[in-house]
Design a protein that fits this description.
Radius of gyration of chain B: 15 Å
Number of strands of chain B: 7
Strand content of chain B: 35-45%
Oligomer: heterodimer
Structural class of chain B: mainly beta
Number of helices of chain A: 8
Number of domains of chain B: 1
CATH topology of chain B: Ubiquitin-like (UB roll)
Order of helices and strands of chain A: EEEHEEHEHEHEHEHEHH
CATH architecture of chain B: Roll
Largest interface: A-B, 35 and 23 residues
Strand content of chain A: 15-25%
Helix content of chain A: 25-40%
Largest sheet of chain A: 8 strands, parallel
CATH superfamily of chain B: Beta-grasp domain
Structural class of chain A: alpha/beta
Helix content of chain B: under 10%
Strand order of the largest sheet of chain A: 8-7-6-5-4-3-10-9
Largest sheet of chain B: 5 strands, mixed
Number of domains of chain A: 1
Distance between the termini of chain B: 49 Å
Number of helices of chain B: 1
Order of helices and strands of chain B: EEEEHEEE
Number of strands of chain A: 10
């Protein structure tokens, strides 16, 4: 049975989303996208360096991918809205990851500003994917503001610490009727599987892939882990118990 | 440059003015259009977005807009990001 993710009416064939930052080169990034068969990839918007030769990252992203620009660098809702409009004008489509970060030490998002930006951009026809601190009341506000999914962080960006906020993410999965995409902090494939077992609809990984010794193999490993975790969630894995329970019949004929 | 009569061409010294481009105050010719600036800097026009005094400028307007003193221009493009 097909188990595709659907966001804003669009079928997304792979629940492993890949960020494109920090790769040693664009060709390497491309190989990682192809090896993992990631369909959803993120990019950022920056000032052009008019002194250096520029290459076009979009050239290295396979045609079948959905490109989602992020608003990284934005410190408030106005800046995020500005970046989103620029990204759309650049021909990147309607998908936008809202990322509003006023603090440089922990890179934690500002939920209040994120809700404001979501409201504005959803009204302008964007498919809004807000990156947020996993808070139930704020997730409900994002839903009301027109978000297409909710993207809680597992741990601070780039820390590779895993799904540290699992209990809060689990609450979002249970209470919010939007796809929950665990974004940030996922360091290894087992973390990604854990997020999927919790019921996340997808995970977005960047640093852990791009900075691995072999980003192409790592991307593949993540993609497989996401599939395994998803299957486990759908299967309804057995609960943990405090006491042992034999898995072989203890027929007792030895005594 | 203007043509007064066939064979005679008169050159005017271009005036220099200041404009803020990607956060830097730069001196540019006062007759420069956005399209000319993009070309002069060897930027591939299909890969960049231009914001002119805070407003996104679609490509079809690049020729028509000639930069004025104290204009602000942001020239942006996509890069890797998570």
């Amino acid at each position: 049975m097909e188990d595709h993710l659907i966001i804003a009416g669009q079928v997304i064939k792979n629940r492993f989303f890949l960020g494109t930052g920090k790769f040693a080169s664009y060709p390497l990034m491309k190989d990682a996208i192809i090896a993992s068969r990631a369909q959803m990839v993120t990019v950022a918007v920056r000032r052009v360096d008019t002194q250096a030769a520029q290459d076009n990252i979009l050239k290295y992203i396979p045609k079948e991918c959905i490109i989602m620009a992020n608003t990284s660098g934005a410190r408030n809702a106005d800046e995020a809205v500005r970046i989103a409009r620029i990204a759309r004008a650049a021909g990147c489509g309607n998908w936008i990851k809202i990322e509003i970060i006023p603090d440089n030490k922990y890179l934690l998002p500002d939920n209040v500003q994120t809700i404001q930006a979501t409201e504005v951009l959803a009204k302008e026809g964007f498919i809004v994917m807000p990156y947020m601190n996993p808070d139930l009341a704020d997730a409900r506000r994002l839903y009301d503001a027109g978000a297409a999914s909710i993207m809680p962080l597992g741990a601070p960006i780039g820390t590779n610490k895993g799904v540290c906020l699992r209990e809060l993410i689990k609450i979002l999965v249970e209470e919010i009727s939007l796809p929950i995409v665990v974004d940030a902090g996922i360091g290894r494939p087992s973390h990604a599987a854990e997020a999927m077992e919790l019921g996340a609809a997808a995970v977005l990984v960047n640093t852990a892939v791009a900075t691995a010794e072999d980003p192409v193999l790592t991307a593949q490993a993540f993609s497989l882990a996401v599939k395994a975790g998803r299957l486990a969630y759908r299967a309804g894995v057995a609960a943990a118990k405090d006491n042992a329970e034999a898995s072989s019949p203890l027929t007792g004929f030895l005594r | 440059m203007q043509t007064l009569m066939p064979g005679i061409r008169v050159f005017y010294l271009e005036e220099i003015m200041r404009a803020r481009i990607n956060g830097e105050d730069l001196s540019i010719a006062s007759t420069m259009s956005v399209a000319a600036l993009i070309a002069q800097r060897n930027l591939r026009s299909e890969t960049v977005v231009v914001e002119y005094n805070g407003v996104i400028l679609t490509r079809d307007k690049w020729d028509a807009i000639v930069l004025k003193e104290n204009d602000t221009l942001e020239i942006l493009s996509f890069v890797g990001g998570g």
